[in-house]
Design goal:
This protein is mostly beta strands. The protein contains no helices and 11 strands.
Amino acid sequence: QVQLVESGGGLVQAGGSLRLSCAASGRTFSRYDMSWFRQAPGKEREFVALINSSGYTYYADSVKRRFTISRDNAKNTVYLQMNSLKPEDTAVYYCAGRAGGASYDYWGQGTQVTVSS
């Protein structure tokens, strides 16, 4: 069983930056594809960014060139560096992991990000 714990959320002004962290338990973290999702009030959860076990990254169009996903397998941690934040980035951010296939096996509890205008 893998547990994911996010941290780093908070309140920031538009144009500011935040770095989210997601710490994972377990010894097979390096084999997992890891992603960030977010859910704004009244909206469905949406994909934000992915980093696979080989280091390949992929982003939603809405965050390209502003957000960067990375991982440190030695620390069992995945990061989301968020720059040039906009009010529409306000959401609860979740990290998720999958060992293979399309569906995610593990989810964190989420961390709130609020961007004020």
